[in-house]
Specification:
Number of domains of chain B: 1
Strand order of the largest sheet of chain B: 1-2-4-6-7
Structural class of chain A: alpha+beta
Order of helices and strands of chain B: HHEEEHEEHEHE
Structural class of chain B: alpha/beta
CATH class of chain A: Alpha Beta
Strand content of chain B: 15-25%
Helix content of chain A: 25-40%
CATH topology of chain A: Heat Shock Protein 90
Strand order of the largest sheet of chain A: 1-2-3-5-4
Oligomer: heterodimer
CATH superfamily of chain A: Histidine kinase-like ATPase, C-terminal domain
Number of helices of chain A: 5
Helix content of chain B: 40-55%
CATH topology of chain B: Transcription Regulator spoIIAA
CATH superfamily of chain B: STAS domain
Radius of gyration of chain B: 14 Å
Order of helices and strands of chain A: EHHEEHHEEH
Shape of chain B: globular
CATH architecture of chain A: 2-Layer Sandwich
Number of domains of chain A: 1
CATH class of chain B: Alpha Beta
Number of strands of chain A: 5
Largest interface: A-B, 32 and 29 residues
Radius of gyration of chain A: 16 Å
């Protein structure tokens, strides 16, 4: 079975509690979802880091350690992976400022302020949509594996 | 139950631990990761260095810094297969605590992946990466 049977599209959704113990689960789940595309170890590692950064942001900044739900939606379109990570937390007042390298609102928690920079560095595309008081959606894209080469045989 | 994480950190420690399970098993495993060799504190980093692990690890490291005579810190990445920016936060935070007394931070057994993360973060300015042959990068 592979995703070409569904018109080159494969989708998954995941909702879990905003607990730091779930960070490992979230990144491994997204990485496992991409397995069908035979991504390289480097690519898997990149995706895991980006997901880990986004989920950590939801827990520390979105919900500020309070209970809440984090939702991850992934779509594979051919060899392109779309990831959407959403929280219904406090939101970000100034997204541009938040995305600056080394900027952090929580230096006392030893946050390096590199979260968004890492997402940008390890993924091909990053978009952040946030409404203060309502929550934040992080959208990332990355091209994976060698699907186009297999495609040519058909 | 007395929970050692809250013992010395005050407000910051309580907020930091809010998102994690109080897990005694993790605490015990964490204990073998610290070793004093002379004035050097050796920290064997866990397999996965993320925010969840970072909270426990930083607390523990800070207690060593307070109690023992820690001049320098060596981060050993031999077991580490995954690290995100939380790892950078651990190193930066510990460095700030010892830098005022001239302390240095070192990384050993850092694979290409971890070196890349260290490179992007700009941490190379303060972190000495020691290669397998004992030379500094």
């Amino acid at each position: 079975m592979n995703n070409r049977e569904y018109g080159n599209r494969n989708e998954m959704e995941l909702t879990f509690d905003a607990l730091s113990a779930n960070e490992g689960f979230a990144r491994v789940a997204v990485a496992a979802f991409t397995a069908d595309l035979n991504p390289t170890l480097e690519e898997i590692s990149d995706v895991k880091t980006a997901v880990s950064e986004a989920v950590t942001n939801c827990i520390i900044h979105g919900y500020e350690g309070k209970p809440g739900k984090i939702q991850i939606r992934c779509v594979l379109e051919r060899d392109l992976l779309h990831i959407e990570i959403e929280d219904k937390g406090t939101g970000i007042a100034d997204v541009e400022k938040a995305m600056e390298p080394l900027f952090t609102t929580r230096p006392e928690l030893d946050r390096s302020g590199m979260g968004f920079s890492f997402m940008e560095a390890f993924m091909d595309d990053l978009e952040v949509e946030s409404t203060p008081g309502e929550g934040t959606i992080v959208r990332m894209k990355k091209k994976l594996g060698c699907e186009p080469f297999i495609e040519q045989e058909e | 139950m007395s929970y050692p994480l809250f013992a010395c950190g005050g407000q910051a420690a309580e907020t930091a631990s809010a998102g994690s399970f109080p897990d005694n098993r993790e605490e015990e495993v964490m204990e073998d990761r610290f070793q004093m060799i002379g004035q050097y504190l050796m920290i064997r980093m866990p397999e996965e260095v993320d925010h969840h692990q970072a909270v426990i690890l930083s607390e523990k490291a800070d207690r060593y810094i307070l109690k023992e005579k820690v001049d320098h810190i060596v981060f050993d990445f031999e077991d580490t297969r995954f690290m995100d920016s939380s790892g950078i936060g651990i190193i930066m935070g510990r460095y700030r605590k010892i830098a005022c007394f001239g302390g240095q931070v070192y990384a050993i057994h850092a694979d290409s992946r971890i070196q890349r993360i260290i490179g992007i973060s700009g941490l190379k300015k303060v972190l000495h990466i020691i290669e397998e042959d004992g030379h500094e990068q």
